[in-house]
Amino acid sequence: MLKRVSLIALAATLAALAVVAAAVARPTSPSTSSTATAGISCKKGVSVGMLAPITGPAASIGGDQLHWAQYYFTQWNKVKGHVKIKLVQGDTQLDPSKASTVAQSFASNGSIVGVIGPAGSDEVQAAAPILSKAGLAFASGSATRVSLTNGSYKGFFFRDVPNDGVQGPTAANYMFNKLKVKSGDSIMVVDDQESYSTGLADIVGASLSAKGVKVDRESISQKATDFSSLIAKVPSSMKVVYLPFQLSSQAQLFAQQLKAQGKSAVAFGSDGTFDSSKFTVDGSYISFFAPDVTTIKADALIVKSFQKQYPGATSPFGAPNYVLAQMYATAITRSCGDGKLTRLEVRKNFGKVKLGTSLLGTPIRFTANGDLANAAFHIFKIVNGKYVTVQ
Amino acid sequence: MNWNLFVTELVSGITHGSVYALIALGYSMVYGILKLLNFAHGDIYMIGAFIGFGIITVFGGPANLDVNVVLMLALMFMCAMLGGGLVGVMIERFAYRRLRTAPRIAPLITALGVSFFLENGAQLVLGAQFQSYDSFSWKNNPIALNGFMLPAQARISYAQVIVVVGTVVLCVALTLFVQRTQTGKAMRATSFDREAAAMMGIDVDRVIVVTFFIGSALAGAAGVFNCIAYQQLWPYMGFQAGLFAFTAAVVGGIGSLPGSVLGGLLIGLAEAFATGYISSTFQQAIVFGILIAVMLVRPAGILGRATVQKV
Fold first, then answer.
1. Is the ipTM above a cut-off of 0.90?
2. Touching check for B64 and chain A: CB below 8 Å?
3. What is the pTM of this model?
C-alpha cells in the first residue's frame, strides 16, 4: 500500500515538475503557423494591420497614430507602380485583452503581411505570442518597456522609439545637468503603482542614486486625487519631483497641488504624461520618446500636407507610425521581387530596412533585438501651456 | 518635530475624512433601517460629482466661468443633492423594494448589479475620460489655489475649508432632523423595529424613501465636495470611495450616525499620517491594518452596539 502511494506521489511530482517546466520554458524562436508561409500575389495589393487605441480614453493618441500611418500609405498608393498597401484598423482601446482579440483576427487574415502596433507595452505583451505564432512582424511606435526587446520575440517585434532604459538616464542627466540637481540633493520619485510606472521609477531612481542624489521613493494609486499628504514631505530645497505616471491628468493634479502648497520643486513627467491638453502646469518638464515633428524644419512640407488631410493638432505620438509605415512599404517592395511575398519575407526584410533620414529627424535602423539604434529621448518644457523642445 | 508636516497631514486627513464621513452616513442610515448594504451608494457620489461638473460646464467651463462662484457653488450643491437623492429613491423603488422580504443575499447582489449598471451607464453617457473641476483655474476665484495660512506655515485652501465646514453643517442638520422632527422620530422607530413601527401607524415605505433620499443627497454633496478640493472625476470614482466609506461606517459602528462620522475621520487621518510618516507605498495596508486592529478590539465598531440575541 505504502509503495503504491509512493509511486503515485512520485508520478504526481514529476507531472507537476513537467507542467512548471513547460510554463517557465520560453521558446527561443516562436513557431509559426501555415498562414505565415502562404505566398500572396503582390499585384492585388497587400494589407498591413494597425493595432491602436482608436476609441476609449487614449483615443486622441491612437487617432493620431492611425492618421500618420494612413497618411503615408495614401501618399504611397498614389505613385504608379507601387505595390498597393491597405491599412486594416484594429481598435485595442489600450486594453491588452482587446489587443489579443484583434491580434487573433489579424493572424487569421491572410492578406495582412505585417502589423504596426500595438501602442502600449502591456498590449504588446498580450498580442506578441499570437502575432509571432502567425509569423507576422509587429512594430510599435510607442511601446517603451525595456523587457519587450529582451530576445523573446527577436525577429518579430521592432520599435522605432527608444526604450525606458534610455528614458530613465536621459531624465536623470537632464535634472543633473540643466536643473542644477547636485550630489547630496534629494529628489522625490513617485510611481503610480502600475508596472510601467514602477519600472521607470526604478530606472530613474537608480540613475539618480548613482550620481549621489538621495531618492525619496513614493507611491500613489492611479485613482488618487489628493497628494497633499505626499507634497507636505517635499522640502523647500527640493528642485524636482519626478512623476512617471500613465495619466497626464494625474500629473497635472500633482503639479497643481505642488504649486498650491507653495513648493518650488518642478514636476518632471515621463512619456505617459505627455498630453498638451491635460498636463499644462507652467515650468513642468516631460521626457518623450519622439520629437515634435512640427518643429523640425525639414518636415515642414510633410507636416503641412498631413494637416491638410487631417486638420487639427498633431502630437509626437503619431509621427513614429509614419516612419513604420514607410519601413513596411520598403520591406514589402523588396519582398515582391518575384511578384509574390510571404509574411516571413516581409518580416526579414523589415528588420533590415535602414532609412538614412526620417521624419523623426534621425536615421532609422533596428538593432538585432528590434530596438531603435542610437535612440534618444527628448525633453520638453511647458511654457505658457505649450510644449517647447529643450533637448 | 516637523510641525508643518503634522498640520498639513492633519488638514489633509480631516478634509478627506469629511468626504468619507458624508458617504458613510448614507451607508449607515440605509443599513440602520433596512439592514441592507447598499453598494450602489458610492456611485451616487459619482453622480453627484458629475452633476456639479455639468453646472460648471453650463457656466462656461473652469477657465471661463462667468458667474459668481458662491452662487455657482450653491447651485452645484443643490442640484447634486437633489439629483443624488432622486437617483437613490429610484434605486430603492425599482431595485430594492420588491426584495425587502427576500433572503438578505438577494438585495446584496442586486446592489452590486445596480452599482455596475450606474458605472457602465455613466461611462456610456459621459465617456471614460477623466474630467476635472479644475478649481485651481476658476477665472474669478481659484478656490483650490487661494486659502489661509495655518500655524507652522501650513496652508489650507478655500476649497478645503468649504469641504470641512460644509460637512459640519450637513452633519448638524442631519442630527437635528433625526432628533427633532416627526419624520426623524419615525426613522429612529423604524430603525429600532420595522414591524412594530408599522403597527404603530408609521408609514414605513415613506420612511425608507426619505432615508434613501437623505443618504443619497449627502453622497451627492460629497461628490461635489471631493471634486472642488481634489478636482478629478470619472465614472468609476465611486468604487474606491464607496469601499473606504463603507469601511468607515463599519469601523464607526454601522447604524450609528456619529460612528460613521468618526469612522470617516479616522480613515482620512490614518491615510494622511500613514503617507506622511510611514510610507505612501503601503498606505492602504497600514490603514486597513489599523482598522483590523480596531475591529478586533471592538467588533461592533467604535460607537456601535453589540446586538444581543435572545434564545
1. no
2. no
3. 0.76
